[in-house]
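Student: Please help interpret what follows.
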Amino acid sequence: MATGIIALAALSLPLAFLIPGPMGVLIWMQTGFKLRLMKYDYLEENPDAKRSAIPWDELLYDERERVGTRTLRGMIFPWKE
């Protein structure tokens, strides 16, 4: 996590903190924290499960349903879909 934050900060420096900038770092941290919570909630519910064999497809199913399919055009022009 720290390596990613440092990389994003280093990438932001020559771009005048516009892209990804401080908000990109905060989104990176929030997403990592959310995924870690999902992992440890799963391990609490299934204490005999292997730590290396987390069923991420099952854990992220609701998130993928909520977001749906996204296209580049849909991200640039969301009102046209």
Notes: The mean pLDDT is 89. Residues 2-80 form one domain.
